[in-house]
Amino acid sequence: MIRQEPRRIIINVHGGGTWELEPSRLVTRHIDQSVTLEGVRTGYDRVEVVRIKRDGEDWPPEQSWTKWFERWRQQ
């Protein structure tokens, strides 16, 4: 479940624990929803979301993990 706190966005993991998510439009659309996401760890407890979907939905076909990762790696 993604929740918003003052100045940060947090995801609670089913097994326990929390991660702080880098802010993006992908993330803010899913606040207060149960989600599945793929991302890259950017700090001790921070994750940059690569792709995200509501639990129970299929991944959108137009999103490509490898294309995003190659762009991110070149930065």
Explain what this protein looks like in three dimensions.
With 75 residues, the chain is an alpha+beta fold. The protein has one domain (2-73). It has helices at residues 25-28, 65-73; strands at 2-5, 8-12, 18-21, 35-41, 46-54. A 5-stranded mixed β-sheet has the order 1-2-3-5-4. The longest helix is centred in the last third of the chain and has 9 residues, at 65-73. The model has no long low-confidence stretch (mean pLDDT 85).
Tell me, briefly, the overall form.
globular
Order of helices and strands: EEEHEEH
Major sheet: order of its strands?
A: 1-2-3-5-4
Mean pLDDT: 85
Number of helices: 2
First and last CA, distance: 30 Å
Biggest sheet details:
5 strands, mixed
β content, as a range?
A: 35-45%
The amount of helix comes to: 10-25%
Report the count of strand segments.
Answer: 5
Rg on CA atoms, Å: 12 Å
Number of individual domains: 1
Derived from helix and strand composition plus strand pairing, the structural class reads: alpha+beta
Low-pLDDT residue intervals, each spanning 5 or more residues: none
How is this structure best summarized?
This protein is α+β, with helices and mostly antiparallel strands and 75 residues long.
Give structural attributes.
alpha+beta, five-stranded mixed β-sheet, 75 residues, globular, 2 helices
